[in-house]
Design brief:
This protein is of the alpha/beta class. 53% of the residues lie in helices and 14% in strands. The strands form two sheets. The protein has a five-stranded parallel β-sheet, sandwiched between helices. It is globular.
Length: 212
């Protein structure tokens, strides 16, 4: 065996060991405690517009998991508004995790995508100074034709931000529910059954990520 081949084998072994160690660290991260407090930051889809009080997805997620999920969804809010609110919310209380679902109103109002992307990235960074557990819920792009045929898809910026800022991406939940007329109260909001399904799917994805 020549020296070059030996060095390549050693390098491969070190890389494999490093990856295995990273995998063990991820697998050994403790799940959130049973009475964990989560902040749900968002707009009308977080608030629960279109459903009776108490039927919003943060309330249903709390019922499913036993966590305390604080609903800080504001009807009509934008990424700039959520970013402006976040500092005071984090200063006023302690949270074990932050769930972010914002940006739909930006797209409806024609806010430049780069502005929305920058605001959401800033939200994730700020949340990560408070807790390492930050999840980004993807919002669908408001495309009328795709909505009409029940095939909404996530706006690409959410995956981009989640990857760049090391946040957990929760994809296809809003898009799936809002593509189903039976789960909507109007074209852009869920009904009670829709919010229940959103909560179930978020809970499932958080469990896959090791949060539960």
């Amino acid at each position: 065996m020549n020296r070059r081949h030996l060095l390549q084998l050693l390098a491969g072994g070190i890389a494999a060991s490093t990856l295995a160690a990273c995998g063990r660290r991820r697998a050994s991260e403790p799940a959130l405690k049973a009475d964990a407090r989560l902040l749900a930051l968002g707009d009308s889809l977080t608030f629960g517009y279109g459903a009776p009080p108490g039927e919003d997805w943060p309330a249903r997620l709390a019922a499913l998991t036993g966590w305390q999920v604080v609903n800080e969804g504001v009807n009509g809010d934008t990424s700039a508004g959520a970013l402006k609110r976040l500092d005071a919310l984090l200063a006023a209380d302690s949270y074990d995790a932050v769930l972010v679902g914002i940006g739909g109103n930006d797209m409806l109002r024609g806010v430049p995508l780069q502005t929305t992307r920058d605001n959401i990235a800033a939200i994730v960074r700020q949340a990560r100074t408070h807790t390492p557990r930050v999840a980004l819920i993807a919002t669908p792009a408001p495309e009328l034709l795709r909505a009409t045929i029940g095939a909404l898809g996530d706006a690409p910026l959410y995956e981009e931000v989640a990857t760049a800022e090391q946040a957990l991406l929760i994809p296809a939940v809003y898009a799936g529910v809002l593509s189903d007329p039976a789960l909507r109260s109007d074209r852009i909001h869920a009904n009670a059954q829709g919010y229940e399904k959103i909560a179930q799917q978020i809970a499932e994805q958080l469990q896959k990520a090791g949060w539960r």
